[in-house]
Amino acid sequence: MTLGERYEGILNAACGVIARRGFHQASIREIARAAGLSLAGLYHYVGEKDELLFLVLGRSLDRLLESLDRSLAEAGTPESRLLALIQTHLDFGFHHAHALRIINRDHELLAEPRRAEIAARRQAYLERGLAVLRDLDPHGRSDAELFSATNLLLGMLNGIATRPFLRSADDARALAAEVGTLFLHGFLERSSRAEETSRLALRRPA
User: Fold this and answer.
1) How far apart, in whole angstroms, are the C-alpha atoms of residue 61 and residue 55?
2) What is the reported pTM?
3) Based on the number of CB atoms within 10 Å of its own CB, is 50 exposed (0-12), middle (13-18) or buried (19 or more)?
4) What is the residue-wise DSSP string for the chain?
5) pLDDT-derived band of residue 190, with 50, 70 and 90 as boundaries?
6) Is the dihedral of CA 11, 17, 23, 29 positive or negative?
7) Residue-level pLDDT at 172
8) pLDDT for the residue numbered 206
9) Is 32 in contact with 18 (CB distance < 8 Å)?
10) Closest CA to 204 of 107, 76, 42
11) According to a count of CB atoms within 10 Å of the terminal CB, is the N or C end of the chain lower?
12) Percentage of the chain modeled with pLDDT above 70
């Protein structure tokens, strides 16, 4: 096993244990056991539990940002960029449920300066969402209004990027279509544009 594979296994184990148990209840010994290492073996690769949380959060946010950037680069219109954001977030929730839970729940438990570094990556993701809504906005909304809308959208996505809403990649695509249609066209109107939004989202690859 290469050094990179060993670190990947340790971070996967830490992510699963911390997501299930919570940061304070998760023990280094339990993480070592999940990684197939002795306690001394784990300490050979990483330090204290705070470092493990920092590494898990950093890896998870980097993956989320890279995935979103790829999806946005492929989207040609403001509407498709919104759908790319929704689809990426839900796909990440389906494939990396533990990581998304830790991103949303445990990031403030880090001590400085690690907390500031993770906060900057979270802010980078938020700013990408803000840019998507700014490009889409036809009404010249203020920064405060767009910030609120972005947080509402991401909060909704965090809430549904879990079971029982997501049980398969197909569920993620279908739910992305529903959320995109609702956000773009509202709840009461069911127009031909809404139908086209649904078809566009459902055609996106897993």
Assistant:
1) 10
2) 0.87
3) middle
4) --HHHHHHHHHHHHHHHHHHH-TTT--HHHHHHHTT--HHHHHHH--SHHHHHHHHHHHHHHHHHHHHHHHHHH--SHHHHHHHHHHHHHHHHHH-HHHHHHHHHTGGGSPTTHHHHHHHHHHHHHHHHHHHHHHH-SS---HHHHHHHHHHHHHHHHHHSSTTT-SSHHHHHHHHHHHHHHHHH-SS---HHHHHHHHHHHHS--
5) low
6) negative
7) 83
8) 44
9) no
10) 76
11) N
12) 91
CA pair distance 201, 65, nearest whole angstrom: 20
Residue type, 71: S
N-terminal to C-terminal alpha carbon distance within the chain: 30
Q: Which residues contact 199 (CB under 8 A, 6 or more apart)?
A: 177
In the predicted structure, residue 136 carries a pLDDT above the cut 60: yes
CB atoms within 10 A of CB 140: 7
Least confident of 44-48, 56-60, 160-164, 194-198: 194-198
If one counts every other C-beta atom within 10 angstroms of the C-beta of residue 90, the result is 25
Tokens of 2: 């290469």
What pLDDT score was predicted for residue 107?
Answer: 93
